[in-house]
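Chains adopt folds. We examine one example:
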Amino acid sequence: MPAKLPQTRSNHVRFDPAFHFFLAPALLLFLLWTVINLVRNLNSTSVSFVVVAVLMLVTATKARLYALKVQDRVIRLEERLRLSGLLPEPLRSRIGELTETQLIALRFASDPELPTLVQRALNENLGAKQIKEEVREWRPDYWRV
């Protein structure tokens, strides 16, 4: 079995093959097929199929987004706990000023570079992409879904 590639800024985005490459495309194709069928055969059954296809697509999308939102909440909690143990007092009192996206991006920063990066994120209002670009020693997150 090949070794897992080390995670970096350029390859940290994760795909769930079952969702991204099977479920979502299959539901989109099903919706397309039902719309084509509706155009060809305008009747109550065709309308019902379009409604069901839309409901299935929305359900799958919402289920995925709910899982990601819960994960983001856990990351925020983990990072606040991590920051409270690593930051000096002047910065520790400002943890609450960090945005959700900043906290989520800061999880990739190594412990030694974290205080400087937090200071910059707060003072310069850095976005997630900017924070990730500034990380020199990448701390991988292999658990993200």
About this structure: Residues 86 and 111 are 7 Å apart (CA to CA). The longest helix spans residues 44-86. The chain is about 65% helix and 0% strand.
